[in-house]
């Protein structure tokens, strides 16, 4: 395991004195999302070592070199890149972004077959290299990939989970903030269920500065959050990824910031509530499927699931999401 040293211990003539182990992040896949996850994590100072792994030697080494050239302007860190999976050895967190690229008009579930095949190939050696790491699956369709990865790896649900609807919830809060004219940091709302077309907002537990969102009366510049307004916002959240993919070919900035936030919650043991995708066990009567619900995330991974208040419609939506994902999982033999 890697070590870190106090600056006072360097240059004393006795050599560096070990102080405590450092944090290591391994990012699997050096494409648009993987490279940007590494970039965001470095900017935020999330880990002292960031390792990029990709089967393309030229690509991954170039990305690592480009990132390394900017270390002067970031919190101190080391960046390494390799086509040898051993670069991920002893990582504290492994983020898996490798997978088939989503094309315009293609749903996330359309990607399942190719991505599950890749996961089947790369996950066992990753677990061998970093058996104690927290694994965060980002590759779409993330809920199916997370479920398959749990079955293939045998890891506990807390140790391997998906990025889920953390990004979707950020999109939801952004749209609510724009509509109401308040800072996005004061909007508390979650998208739940599948990270995909059957996801839905948890309006019953949403609030703005402590005011229940359904009771928000509006301002001089913006009216109340009526059911019609809420429906339009939910639709925009679901369709936004397709709009971005159509315009620029991929989403990478916001998802990478969302993933870096999850990484920090783990490495800093923040016990932060995030809607990650993990294996449910009798959550509102739903079991044996990976879905996103508000979850306490810390150094042990995806910990306690919060049973937030849900309306009857929201519970029904969660069950519909579960059934849709179970049907896809069965199609691939899980």
UniProtKB/TrEMBL annotation:
Listed SUPFAM superfamilies: LDH C-terminal domain-like, NAD(P)-binding Rossmann-fold domains
Sequence positions that bind NAD(+): 29-34, 54, 59, 99-100, 138-140, 163
Pfam families: Ldh_1_C, Ldh_1_N
Metabolic or biological pathway: Fermentation; pyruvate fermentation to lactate; (S)-lactate from pyruvate: step 1/1
Main location: cytoplasm
GO MF entry, a single one: L-lactate dehydrogenase (NAD+) activity
Record NCBIfam families: L-LDH-NAD (TIGR01771)
Family as reported in the entry's similarity comment: Belongs to the LDH/MDH superfamily. LDH family.
Protein name from the UniProt record: L-lactate dehydrogenase
Gene: ldh
């Amino acid at each position: 395991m890697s070590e870190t040293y106090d600056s006072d211990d360097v240059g004393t003539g006795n050599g560096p004195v070990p102080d405590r182990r450092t944090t290591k992040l391994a990012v699997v896949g050096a494409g648009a999302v993987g490279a940007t996850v590494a970039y965001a994590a470095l900017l935020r100072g999330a880990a002292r070592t960031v390792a990029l792994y990709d089967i393309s030697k030229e690509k991954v080494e170039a990305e690592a070199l480009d990132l390394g050239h900017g270390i002067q302007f970031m919190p101190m860190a080391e960046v390494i890149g390799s086509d040898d999976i051993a670069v991920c050895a002893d990582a504290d967190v492994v983020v898996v972004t490798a997978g088939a690229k989503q094309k315009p008009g293609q749903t996330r579930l359309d990607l399942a077959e190719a991505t599950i095949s890749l996961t089947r190939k790369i996950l066992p050696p990753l677990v061998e290299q970093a058996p104690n790491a927290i694994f965060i699956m980002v590759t779409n369709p993330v809920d199916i990939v997370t479920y398959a990865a749990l079955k293939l790896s045998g890891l506990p649900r807390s140790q391997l989970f998906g990025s889920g609807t953390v990004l979707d919830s950020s999109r939801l809060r952004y749209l609510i903030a724009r509509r109401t004219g308040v800072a996005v940091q004061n909007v508390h709302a979650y998208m739940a269920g599948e990270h995909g077309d059957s996801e839905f907002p948890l309006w019953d537990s949403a609030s703005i500065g402590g005011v229940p969102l359904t009771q928000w009366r509006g301002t001089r510049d913006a009216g109340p959050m009526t059911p019609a307004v809420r429906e339009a916002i939910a639709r925009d959240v679901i369709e936004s990824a397709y709009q971005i993919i159509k315009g620029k070919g991929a989403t990478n900035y916001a998802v990478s910031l969302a993933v870096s936030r999850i990484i920090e919650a783990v490495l800093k043991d923040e016990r932060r509530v995030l809607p990650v995708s993990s294996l449910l066990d009798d959550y509102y009567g739903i079991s044996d499927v990976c879905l996103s619900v508000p979850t306490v995330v810390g150094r042990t991974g995806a910990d306690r699931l919060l049973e937030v208040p849900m309306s009857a419609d929201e519970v029904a939506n969660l069950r519909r999401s579960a059934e849709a994902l179970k049907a896809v999982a069965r199609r691939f033999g899980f």
